[in-house]
Amino acid sequence: MIADEYILKLQDTDSFCTLYKATKKDNKINYTIINYKKDEFDYNETEGTKAILKEGREIMKELNHPNIIKLIEVKEDSSSYNYICEFCNDKTINKYLEEASDKQLSEEIVKFIMEQVVSAVKYLHDKKIVHRDIKLDNIYIKYNSEEDLLNKNILNSKIILGGFYVSTHLKKGNSLFDYVCTMNYISPEMKTNLDKYNEKIDIWSLGVCCFVLLYGNYPYNHYDYNEFNGYKNRMKYDLKKPLSKEAISFIDSMLEIDPNKRLSAFELSKHPFLNKNINI
User: Phi-psi region for residue 152, left (φ > 0), alpha (ψ -120 to 50) or beta?
Assistant: First the structure.
């Protein structure tokens, strides 16, 4: 049993798994353990869901990038699959934002976060992997020291992308069809079901993340998608504080309705918002 080797502290739960902060008993090193219960996974899920979750777990074994959560080892016991990963100080970007005084972050901090997450997503897309659940709850902060953690010095940290539970490889023809998402981050082409989709859904989710970090609220209520006459109509959102022209262009390039016009991760990595000194 995993509890024989680790002291476990519950971090989070969702419909797919349970996350624990795990301290190794013999060396006191902290890890994150993603725990999948076999009885729930093997018997309570549909065959399609089981296949999705299995692929997501297997994808974690392929990944090696400084801004993607590092899988250390996998341990299986009679009741669980346990994915033992690097520990990221128990902080997600969403928690960090909730603790911010005005629930909004400066362009300097958003640039710092986004350039690392974009780097991770570019790596995934180069490997023909689609994350499919990019959201602020799946982006972690790994502070460089306990002092930085205490002072919330995010500019002295590493940003880590996790949450690969429903990730998948692009199939033949580079198109996907499964309806997998977190609603406030869902792209128009998936929500409207008018078209098959590809890795560009991750870019849309990045755009939502960026907007929330800068404004403290979502650009759209996901229920509003039903009001649009086809996904190619331009969605409108209100910018409630002045931004640099580079930041506005960066958001627009991700929250582009037509996925064919939406920038790729490679193109985002070259965007001026991430590559020039911005007067903030």
Answer: left
pLDDT digits (tens, 9 = 90+) for 153-162: 999 999 999 9
Within-domain flag for 126: yes
Say what the pTM is: 0.87
Task: Tell me how far CA of residue 69 lies from CA of 57, 82, 138, 230, in angstroms.
Answer: 13, 15, 10, 37
- DSSP collapsed to 3 states, the chain: CHHHCEEEEEEEECCCCEEEEEEECCCCCEEEEEEEEHHHHHHHCCHHHHHHHHHHHHHHCCCCCCCECCEEEEEECCCEEEEEEECCCCCEHHHHHHHCCCCCCCHHHHHHHHHHHHHHHHHHHHCCEECCCCCHHHEEEEECCHHHHHHCCHHHEEEEECCCCCCEECCCCCCECCCCCCHHHCCHHHHCCCCCECCHHHHHHHHHHHHHHHHCCCCCCHHHHHHCCCCCCCCCCCCCCCCCHHHHHHHHHHCCCCCCCCCCHHHHHCCHHHHCCCCC
Is 194 part of a structural domain of the chain?
yes
Marked catalytic residue, from 133, 148, 178, 238:
133
Range(s) of the domain holding residue 261: 93-275
Concerning whether 133 is annotated as a catalytic residue, the answer is: yes
Q: Kindly report the CATH number assigned to the domain that includes residue 10.
A: 3.30.200.20
Burial label for 197, CB within 10 Å (0-12, 13-18, 19+), is buried
Cα 55 to Cα 135: distance, rounded to the nearest angstrom:
19
Same domain? 202 vs 228: yes
Judgement on whether residues 79 and 101 belong to the same structural domain of the protein = no
Mind listing the pLDDT tens digit for each residue in 232-279?
Answer: 444 455 556 688 999 989 999 999 888 999 999 999 999 999 997 755
Q: Is residue 280 part of a domain?
A: no
**Side chain identity, residue 15:** S
